Structures are given as structure tokens and as C-alpha cells.
Amino acid sequence: MSTDASGGGEPDVPVTVTPKAAEEAISLMEGEGMDTDVGGLRLFVQQGGCAGLSYGMRFDNEPEEDDRVTEHHGLRVFVDPSSMNYIGGSTLDYESGLQAAGFHVENPNVEAECGCGESFRT
């Protein structure tokens, strides 16, 4: 990953996950036949988007050696050190509504977001 580690986040403060987000992620993992005791949701930051950085999520079968691993409501969450600089202290939530449903990161480190909320700057 080629992000600049000067994001200004709180690397010692883990990302938290709401019960609804954990429930949705676990359901998706089980639907893909993944072992939720070992695998987890990887939350990361990547270059891109109109504000400069964007969030990424994927399921991984196991954490990387240097990942910060936390567990929330039965969901294991993996965050690499570079991403933690940008998203430390954030909360992952799941929102559902009439027009859209999906995961949303509430990041206290954000100084500016694009209009769609998919990219940000710290």
C-alpha cells in the first residue's frame, strides 16, 4: 500500500464495530463458507477518490503478521499499521434504508469528505 503514514489518526485506539455491522459481516462470511473463528473483515485505506483517500473492505481467511486484530460482537477485524494511522478510533456501522444499504465508516480523523462519502482527507 502506498499511503503516507502521516494521516494523524490514533493508531493506539482500535476501530470499533457496531452490533449491526458485525451481524451483517458475519452473515456474509458464513454465506461464503468462511471460518469466522479464524477469518475476519479487513478494513483498510487506499489512495483514490476525489478527496484523496478511500476506505476498502474485504474478507480475509487470516490476519497478516503486523495487523491490529480486534474482535467485536464475534467479528474479527484486521487493520494494517498504515491504515490504522488514518482510521484509528473509527466506528464501522451498517446502515439500511429505502434507497441503499451498506457499511459506513464514522471516522473522527476526517477533515474533509467527498459528496458521496466514499473518500476523505485527514
Automatic annotation (TrEMBL):
It comes from the Archaea. Residues 15-118 form the Core domain. One of its GO terms (molecular function) is 2 iron, 2 sulfur cluster binding. GO terms for biological process: iron-sulfur cluster assembly. Pfam families: Fe-S_biosyn. PANTHER family: IRON-SULFUR CLUSTER ASSEMBLY 2 HOMOLOG, MITOCHONDRIAL. This is Iron-sulfur cluster assembly accessory protein. It comes from Halobaculum magnesiiphilum. The lineage of its organism: Archaea, Methanobacteriati, Methanobacteriota, Stenosarchaea group, Halobacteria.
